[in-house]
Amino acid sequence: MKIPSRTLAVLAATALTVSACSKDTPSTAPAPGGAGQGGVGVDLPRADSDFWNAYAGYVPEKATEVGVELTATTNSQNNIQTLISNVDSMVTQGAKAIVMAPQDTGAIGPKLDELAGKGIPVVSVDTRPDSGKLYMVVRADNRAYGTKACEFLGEKLGGKGKVIEFQGALSSINGRDRSEAFKECMDTKYPDITVFEEPTDWEGSKAQAALETRLATDPDIKGVYMQAGGVFLDPTLQVLKQRGLLVPPGDPKHIFIVSNDGIPQEFDAIRKGHIDATVSQPADSYAGIALYWAKQAMAGVQPKEGPTEHGSTVIKLPNGFEDQLPAPLVTKDNVDDPALWGNSTKS
């Protein structure tokens, strides 16, 4: 994905907040790239998602804005062993901090503890490792994703009908958070809606197969919750188009769809009436804030709980801290908002 230069004022504002985004920032922080700072190794989690490709495009730009040197950038392709190997390589190359996004949040714990023992802080982006010591997690409230999706579909369906849910990998805290919150909300607020939970392991082909099967057995499905638009959007729209169900919201055959990611392709689909909403994950802020915290870690700054100057909240975890970034619901009413990162980057 080619990410062109962004000149919108909102991104200039983002750059300013990243450079001074926490009340914990020391007034005498070392100069960018100065002595003792070292470099940051960044592992990208996968290349088969438009969201993560957008994130990858922001990494070098945000590194320059924050003032950190990138020791290396690797891609673990959704494989935990590859991630571990990549991290070892970056440490060998001299990385003093690591930014990663482990997709298997249960298996990365021992490596995190090993890095902590070597004095190498880790910032995890979008995913919260189940165990292992880390400096900071940078992610949005993923339970809120599931709740927002539930409430949107529940309202659109009038509290009745059938919904299919493409669950992310349940080995991932994100997949669990979104799935559990969606279920709790549906059970509590919309008990007359039937939910078909379809595990996908974040694979578009599995979502496509599940949708084809469910529409064959339950042609009256009226709602879809896609936990990751970056991998589920195209397969879903292909199936609906083949079945003559890719129709605008006013058509009785319309199936209401809410997604998660906030990529440009989702925004285009909302404008066309192909899907109805998405929760926008801030790919630009994920990159910028993660590198900011990596720099803070190398400077020896201890995070503190509470609000930040970039509109988020830091909470304490058993194994570190988490910076919870805002993630708005996007519908036809606000899809053209220039403050949304999906409107400032093109695929």
UniProtKB/TrEMBL annotation:
InterPro entries assigned to the protein according to its UniProt record, in alphabetical order: Peripla_BP_I, SBP_2_dom
Chief place of localization: other
Superkingdom assignment: Bacteria
Subcellular location: Cell envelope
Record-linked Pfam families: Peripla_BP_4
Cleavable signal peptide: 1-20
UniProt keyword annotations, A-Z: Signal
Domain annotation Periplasmic binding protein: ranges: 40-300
Chain intervals for the UniProt region annotation (Disordered): 22-42, 326-347
PANTHER family linked to this entry: D-ALLOSE-BINDING PERIPLASMIC PROTEIN-RELATED
Protein name per its UniProtKB record: Sugar ABC transporter substrate-binding protein
